[in-house]
Amino acid sequence: MNTPLRFTTFAAPSRFYALTAALDPWLWMLAIGLTIAGLYIGFFVAPTDATQGDSYRIIFIHVPAAWMSMILYLAMAFWAGLGWMLNARMASMLARAIAPTGAMFTFLALWTGAFWGKPTWGTWWVWDARLTSELILLFLYLGYIALVASIDDAVRGDKAGAVLALVGAVNVPIIYFSVKWWNTLHQGATISMTAAPKMAQTMLMAMLLMTFAFWAYAFAVVFARARALAVERERDTEWVRALAVGGSRS
User: Fold this and answer.
1) Distance from C-alpha of 151 to C-alpha of 161, rounded to nearest angstrom
2) Is residue 118 part of a domain?
3) Higher pLDDT, 115 or 160
4) What is the pTM of this model?
5) What are phi and psi of 188, to 5 degrees?
């Protein structure tokens, strides 16, 4: 008799490993294909902006990276908190796996934002509310990574990291609403759930393709890192020994 799938079915590291190992090749192919399509449309098909010229094209990388930086932080805080409250080891490992990828997207958003800001504002950096809060987000990611790595006991490290991640989550709505709460140089949202897009169809298509590409990349990398963490922590368990035997035979 088959056991029905539940939310907790893949909470076991062995099942999580098997599922994500099967998904990863498809996620990588999806990420590469969407990236090629998104960059081609964004850089070669989308029209030149009447105000900013071709310099605006950096938004096809900058905007999806900024979205991912915030979404991944909330995902990291969620899994860290879940692991802390329910003592779910796979959730805590998933939070650790998300952090480096979230930090990378945050750095990418800041870096591409500087390249966008130079021709638009005449400077690489301003202490604007959104830029500053995004920089704080990078420090929160790096702080979480450093904190969990500095504690030898993995369980204690997970708990300490969860506290930092949950407290730092308050910065995400500050980033998102900063352009509405304060008078900032950074422009408002280009895409809204309650209004029509403020860009041409080809621009919107390139933006969405790059967003989905970044999602697929994030899943692939986070899953791979989480599997490595699972094998490291569970190295004395039967399923890891069986995995090692199977790998040596192949």
Assistant:
1) 10
2) yes
3) 160
4) 0.87
5) -75, -175
pLDDT in tens, 70-108: 999 999 999 999 999 998 999 999 999 999 999 999 999
Q: List Cα–Cα distances, 84 to 71, 154, 228, in angstroms.
A: 20, 12, 20
CA distances for 73 relative to 155, 157, 219, angstroms: 20, 18, 14
Give pLDDT, residue 196. 46
In a domain, 69, yes or no: yes
Does 61 fall in a domain?
A: yes
| Counted domains in the chain | 1
Q: What is the 3-state secondary structure (H, E, C) of the chain?
A: CCCCCCCCHHHCHHHHHHHHHHHHHHHHHHHHHHHHHHHHHHHHHCCCECCCEHHHHHHHHHHHHHHHHHHHHHHHHHHHHHHHHHCCHHHHHHHHHHHHHHHHHHHHHHHHHHHHHHHHHCCCCCCCHHHHHHHHHHHHHHHHHHHHHHCCCHHHHHHHHHHHHHHHCCHHHHHHHHHHHCCCCCCCCCCECCECCCCCHHHHHHHHHHHHHHHHHHHHHHHHHHHHHHHHHCCCCHHHHHHHHHHHHC
- C-alpha 73/C-alpha 104 separation (Å) is 11
The rounded Cα 204 to chain-centroid distance in angstroms is: 21
Q: Which domain holds residue 120?
A: 55-206
Query: pLDDT by residue (tens digit) across 40-55?
Result: 999 999 888 777 777 7
**Angstrom distance (rounded) from CA 32 to CA 52:** 28
Angle at 84 between CA 81 and CA 87, to 5 degrees: 135
Which tokens is 76 given?
């990291």
